[in-house]
Amino acid sequence: MPAACLAGRRRLWLVSTTFGDVRARMRESTAAALARGFKVVRTERMRLMTVQLLERRGR
Question: Which of 14, 33, 41, 52 is exposed most, by the fewest CB atoms within 10 A?
Answer without folding.
Answer: 41
